[in-house]
Amino acid sequence: FAVGFSVSGSAVIVFVGVVIAVGVSVPPVLASMGDLADAHGDQIDRGTDQLNTDIAIESTVYNQTRGELMINATNTGSTTLAINETSVLLNGTIQTRSNGEIIETAIDGAGTETTLWLPGETLEIRIDTGTEPDRVKLVTENGIERTTINIETVS
Known about the structure:
Elements: H1 2-51, E1 55-63, E2 68-75, E3 81-82, E4 87-90, E5 93-95, E6 102-107, E7 116-117, E8 122-128, E9 136-139, E10 145-148, E11 152-154
Parallel strand pairs: 1-11
Antiparallel strand pairs: 1-2, 2-8, 3-7, 4-5, 4-9, 6-8, 9-10
C-alpha cells in the first residue's frame, strides 16, 4: 500500500509540475506568435508601398552663378511620400538640411509648408552645391531610387 501511494504521489507531483511549466511557458509563446504575425503584416505593408512607389527625375539644372542645383522630380506612383524622408545624393554624398546643403523644398512651386509628396505632384529641391555634380540620385523612404547624369548647366 505504501509503495503504490508513493508512485501515485510521485505521478501527481510530476503532473502538477508539468501543468505549472506549461502554464508558465504558453503565454510568452502565444505573445511571440502574435508579434511574429504583426511583423509579417508590417512586412507585407512595406512591400505593397514599395510596389506602389515610383518617381521620375524630370530635370536637374545647375546654376553656375549661384552654385546651386535645382532638381524637379515627380511622384509617378500611387503612394504618398514624406519629403523629409526622401534623400538626395550628389556624387554619392548625401545632402542634408542640417548642414545647409538643401536650401529649400517645395511642391509644385507652392512654398515649403507641406511635408507630403502626393502622387502626381512635382517636388522641387534647391541645393547649395558650390560645384556642378556629375550624378544626382533621389531615394524615397521605402528604397525606390532614381539616378540621372543629365545635368543642364546655366549661368
